[in-house]
Amino acid sequence: MSNGDVSIAVVTMRFDASNLAGLVAVLSKYVVMTRMHPGCRNVDLLLSAIQENRVLVIQKWDSVDAQRVHFDSALMVEMAKSCKNLLTKAPEIELFDSMSSHDLA
Q1: Domain count, the chain
Q2: Has residue 67 been placed in a domain?
Q3: For 101, which DSSP code?
Q4: DSSP 37
Q5: What is the pLDDT of residues 24-45, one digit of tens each?
């Protein structure tokens, strides 16, 4: 990013639970531990107000590179393995990279 723009990467991970209590327990631990990972700005754990048993994790990172290091980490692997038998389907994961306001011109 140039011109003083702030770079940020955002990840959304949407989970549909077959065992909501079990999933929330796994993701709560994951969120707390991820907040301590280098480059992590914040992680939020949200429960859908519309779709029953749907949980959303939103992560904010200093950069796409910092986030990718986290995705290859033992913490991420542990969380993914712990979700086995707690979901109705594979989670939906998206990675967003910031863009400069100058890119919009």
Answers
A1: 1
A2: yes
A3: G
A4: S
A5: 999 999 999 999 999 999 999 9
Evaluate whether residue 75 is within a structural domain: yes
| Tokens encoding 80 | 């993914």
Alpha-carbon separation of residue 35 from 9, 13, 19, 39, 85 (angstroms): 14, 15, 24, 9, 25
Burial of 6 (0-12, 13-18, 19+ CB in 10 A): exposed
DSSP three-state, residue 103: helix
Residue at 105 is within a domain = no
Say which CATH number the domain at 46 has.
3.30.70.100
Residue 89 lies in a domain: yes
* The pLDDT value given to residue 105: 55
Residue 23's contacts (CB-CB under 8 Å, 6 or more residues apart) are 15, 17, 55, 83, 86, 87
Per the structure, the complete domain to which residue 77 belongs is given by: 13-99
Q: How far apart are CA 44 and CA 49, in angstroms?
A: 15
Q: What is the pTM of this model?
A: 0.87
Residue 46: what are its φ and ψ, rounded to 5°? -125, 145
